[in-house]
Fold Ribonuclease H.
Amino acid sequence: MSEDVVVIHTDGGCTPNPGPGGWGAVMRQGDHARELFGGESGETTNNRMELMATIMALEALTRRVRVHLHTDSTYVRNGITKWVLAWEKNGWKTSAKQPVKNVDLWQRLQAACAQHDVEWFWVKGHVGVPDNELADELATKGMLEAMSR
């Protein structure tokens, strides 16, 4: 792994969906690693938690860096790499002229991405990719801690 790239794996989820949720992120650069997690005890969704994981990881970076961001969410990856510019151009409406869901988080993610050079990767979830599995465990921890508050 190159010293000048921060590799991030993220995950989020809810039980049930919608319901309480959590997010987790594993960040690595060279020999350094950082784990982040959090959650919401009220009604949230899997998609919101997936977005929060990526946002919180990117916002935790203290200087502009190259980022390889791995997510098991096609919603997040396709949203930020394919759909978000059209949504913004259309006044945050979908092609069906409906309001974009989670617009607050999409705008926050766009702002976080603008601070870094982000390359997006999709990884299949729950197939033994170590940092994806760890991000999943952190998301569960975040949800459980939020529910216990």
